[in-house]
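FAQ: What does the model actually see?

It sees only this:
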Amino acid sequence: MSSISQTPQEVAARLLDALSARRPDAVVLRGDSQTWRAAELQSAVDSLACGLAGTRVLAVLADNSPAWVIADLAALRAGIVHLPLPGFFSPSQLAHALTQTAADTVLTDQPARITGLGLGFAVVGKANGLLRMQRTTPEAALPPATAKISFTSGSTGAPRGVCLSAAGLLDTAVAVAGCFADLAIERHLAVLPLSLLLENSAGVHAPLLLGAEICVAGLQTLGWRGMAGFDPEALQQAVAASGANSLIVVPELLKMWSTHLAAGGQVAAGALRHVAVGGARVAPALLARARAVGLPAYQGYGLTECGSVLSLNRPGDDGEGVGRPLPHVRVRIADGEVLVGTRAFLGYVGDELPPPTTVPPLSEFATGDLGRLDGNGHLHLEGRRKNLLITSFGRNVAPEWPESLLLAEPAIAQAVVFGDGMPWLSALLVAAPGADDGALAAAVARVNARLPDYARIVGWLPAAPFSSDNGLATGNGRPRRSAILHHHAADLAAIHQAREASDVLS
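And it is asked to produce this:
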């Protein structure tokens, strides 16, 4: 474990010291139309940090840009809590995050989304091209030493805010930087939204420590079409133009990109040395296809509660699992479950705060993932204890959330939602007496209108009732998910294949 200080200011100093070690005129941050040299970035961070005096919780709702990076570092420098807001959050999710944390300042390029929440925010100025909005609100009770609050991607309608320490986050960045130290990473392209802790930590903080240039382009430029669609040709062009040596993707992006390259007889840009794949499980066949078209893809594993990256495969230390645990974490297996010790996790927003003396310096978090450590010290995942679905875009969705909305529809008697490892969710629907397929379709449309795009039901099939007689429900009528998935595996595969074929044709 690192022996660094717990204070955000000293963490910021550690990151900015890496800038001081470079030539003042060296380009360290590159956007769509603007570059920042080492001295300029330091000055911008210091200036914004001073301007944030009096702020308790700074929320940032913005596209990927140098301004986002500056705001992140300035919050650390000022010793205030940073609340990154995912762009894919629905209005109710944004309101929940801002209300629970009592955020009093917002930096944004989407002011209408903030004012539309009716929370009292008003524009008071600008900062590096982002509008600054403020409100007066009572302070929320947060765990001591909270430096960042990362809300989950919406496993339920009201996602939980994970409170993280600056020291724990720096532990992650230092470990990732050490893992890449011999790979000659000179330029990292941020492909994932910076609001995701994975890109924030491994794609900004770690490259800073490595002395690498950070390239941040708008998400549209990179190929994102909302949070459930992607243009792989746009990504291919962005990667080639940036000359990036490293980037981070989720499995669905890797699948789309490698398929696109193979179909066009293309290969990846020659400058790439490491493509980290995380956010959801990765099939070995996908890694093989990616490497066949020149994408040096390596699987990793992490959790928000543990400060993001926990383990990572890399050239010279690669395996079939999710990699060797990084030196800043303690991983053990208890009753088949992966338990992880880090300094990052402080608790959840809204939880009762324990006395400070009862908080251990290295907390252990039960991941809910089942796994094992092999003889080489590599971690292998073998499923989950919980029902949580993780799409191939890396979005967490508890199936009970869309299921509860589906079951509230009069036309639907039973509903089971699937989609683990898939780009979108599907459902098996049992019609209520008298309801036909048209009524089911209308019900799904109404439910989808209430859900963010990553949690919508894209494909569905009518099904016979799930009962204890056919082995698809318990004695009290609760659907048996694993049995239903096994029974309808071919049907579910067919609707996914049909949708993928339709996407290719369109």
